[in-house]
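User: Hi! I'm working on a homework problem where we have to compare a predicted structure to a textbook description. Could you give me the structure for the chain below?
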Amino acid sequence: MHYVSHAIPIFGEIMIFTATCPSCGYRATDVMVLGEKPATRCEWSVSSAEDIKAVVIRSSFGTIEIPELGVTVEPRRGEAFITTVEGVLSRVERVAKLLTQDSEGKERAEAVLKQIEQIKLGKERMTLIIADPTGNSAIIADQLFFDRESFSEEG
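Assistant: Happy to help. Predicted structure tokens:
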């Protein structure tokens, strides 16, 4: 197990944890904000192709919801990430593509994939919501904080 503390804008002092198992190769990473914060609920409305470039920071306690797609991404320990709205949509796409192979969920999954394509083109709207009881998740659309080009579409 390795850990390091670091001060970053917006969140302050954080601790980054990485655990690896030399036997099986399992790896887990998590980020913990060391200060206390109240619970947060962030919402970002996407109505253009430019809006999907907003940065998404989700702690391992944050729940992501996209009501228009009927999608909820529940938190899992060690599943914190920093990406863009497009990166979140790419994660949902990967799951939907797996579900197209299931006869029961195929029709719904294909509809979600079509909606995501339209959202990425700016032809359909959506709302990204993150609820985090630890207050450590955020949606940042301000170019001053991050160079969006440094975040890949794959998240």
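For your comparison, note the following. The chain has one domain: 37-150. The first helix runs from residue 85 to 99. Good luck with the assignment!
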